[in-house]
Amino acid sequence: xxxxxxxxxxxxxxxxxxxxxxxxxxxxxxxxxxxxxxxxxxxxxxxxxxxxxxxxxxxxxxxxxxxxxxxxxxxxxxxxxxxxxxxxxxxxxxxxxxxxxxxxxxxxxxxxxxxxxxxxxxxxxxxxxxxxxxxxxxxxxxxxxxxxxxxxxxxxxxxxxxxxxxxxxxxxxxxxxxxxxxxxxxxxxxxxxxxxxxxxxxxxxxxxxxxxxxxxxxxxxxxxxxxxxxxxxxxxxxxxxxxxxxxxxxxxxxxxxxxxxxxxxxxxxxxxxxxxxxxxxxxxxxxxxxxxxxxxxxxxxxxxxxxxxxxxxxxxxxxxxxxxxxxxxxxxxxxx
Length: 336
What we know:
This protein has 336 residues and is of the alpha+beta class. It contains 11 helices and 19 strands. Among the domains are: 87 residues, Nucleotidyltransferase, domain 5; 71 residues, Alpha-Beta Complex (Actin, Chain A, domain 4), CATH 3.90.640. The longest helix has 25 residues. The two termini are 16 Å apart.
């Protein structure tokens, strides 16, 4: 049995008894104008922005859903082939895939069809907040409210969970990729410097933050790119304050979504959330001071889950053994 976190930026695969066996970028390189695969995962990621004219490296997932069905299927098939070695490669496994809580039935069907095409015996879907909560160690079957904020590459999912199901949720297509684009736009506007996706992500990881640190120590980073005025290479210094300014509009939109969920949740569950706190999962939860930002917005204690990047895929795999707990939930996982 296999759990798959089919993320916009990263694909993670968890195999029962083995743990997380694959963490690779959701990138595939193909011969231009065809579907002939040249590389997937890490090898394809290294080609982003560096390919010759006859090869193109693309991300077949966008905003948490399949943007290119054929390339997504080929990418998934290559990853499954990597993790199923020896006699296991002849088996038809049960595969559970986590999905954003707000995607449509058509988008769900596209995921299921892709999973069946790679040879799965059965395809199961589970929503990301449920999977993240399970992976974070929350006992979701209890009749108490728990609040999860999962920040991935393509979507941010906010949900209040009780008795194995989602009571109220929202899914925003504002997450890691949008943060990267915000940084690129800010550097372009402030320094007339053009940088790429990978550089923006490195800035976010190195000096990025949701709030300006209170101390006087302000991390800085040298960033290289192309000067938009004369077209020549240029190096500028980027600070944490720059990144906070760049991310502010997007983070404010995330704050609005969090407030909306809290406003719509039943008061009894909100009481539980205040007592138990909010748990953040996903790679985006590692942005410095993001938990403090959410705590300031909600006035509720906030904690980042241990190993937040893998929470969702671990929970997805664990959910395969929890059918008896999830089957009565209002928003239980789907079977196709």
